[in-house]
Every structure is written in C-alpha cells, then in structure tokens.
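Review session, final week

We close the course with one last complete record, chosen because it touches almost every idea we covered. It is Toxin-antitoxin system HicB family antitoxin, a protein from Streptomyces atrovirens with 52 residues. Go through it on your own first, then we will talk.
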Amino acid sequence: MDEEKRITLRLPADLHAWLAAQAKSARRSLNSEIVYRLEVERAAAVTDAESP
C-alpha cells in the first residue's frame, strides 16, 4: 500500500463479532482481516472482469 486512508466504519454487531473471530483464527488484527478480505474480493472481481 502506497498511501493509507483512515475511515470510520459502522458494522452490525454480529458481523463485527464474526470478523473479529475470523481475524483471531487467522492471527490477524481486525483491520488486517478487513483489508485482506477486501483485497481478495477485488482480485476476484478483476479476474471475473477479465474472463470471457
């Protein structure tokens, strides 16, 4: 990441709890888990856009 931007994110409590559990399981911070999942989705979207 060249530059970082700070945002405020509101999540439903159940989604927050699920993400926090996933982050703990993967030994990542909650922030890192969210960034990881967004990057995976972005890569999938780019791959889908490139497919015929």
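Two points worth writing down before the exam:
The chain has a mean pLDDT of 93.
Residues 30-50 form the longest helix (21 residues).
Good luck, everyone.
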